[in-house]
Amino acid sequence: MQNDFRGMLAPIFELKEGPFLLVPVFVVPVEIFSRGMMTRTSYSFHAAIVDAVNGQVTLLPQKSVVVLETELPGGKRLEPRVPRERAVDLAEEAARLVGKGKWTGALRYNSVMVDQERVRSTWRVWKIEGECLVDSATGRRENLGSLVAALLGEAGNPPDSSEP
Description:
The chain has helices at about 85-95, 145-155, and strands at about 10, 20-35, 40-50, 55-60, 65-70, 75, 110-115, 120-130, 130-135, 140-145. With about 160 residues, the chain is mainly β. It has one domain (about 1-155).
């Protein structure tokens, strides 16, 4: 499955020297049509970035996600454990939950469409800085414990793909 992953998410800062952690991800384009009694009707385009190691989904505006077909920096590559079909299902479920955080979310309905033809498998580069991991695509910082969890999770059982 690893051979299907090409390119990387465009970094917002220059990748000079690191150590780097390369995490396989699926970029799933989703369109969300929202309507409800307490909110206006809206139609939005997002890119769901699904981590192929643990299935975590990050929704970003579609225009902000760019995949570069460039050479990857050297670093530890994690093995993908989430199949493409499961990643699409996780992205669709995350998109259905957009805007459901407040009480008005109970009166909101999201219709989601996934463009199966444009799903891409690529790499997300994390730079290791001291005790933090820095996502090169968003600049988000995570505690180094995330790295340990990812490495230990890689050795464990793969996620159950029979769950909806």
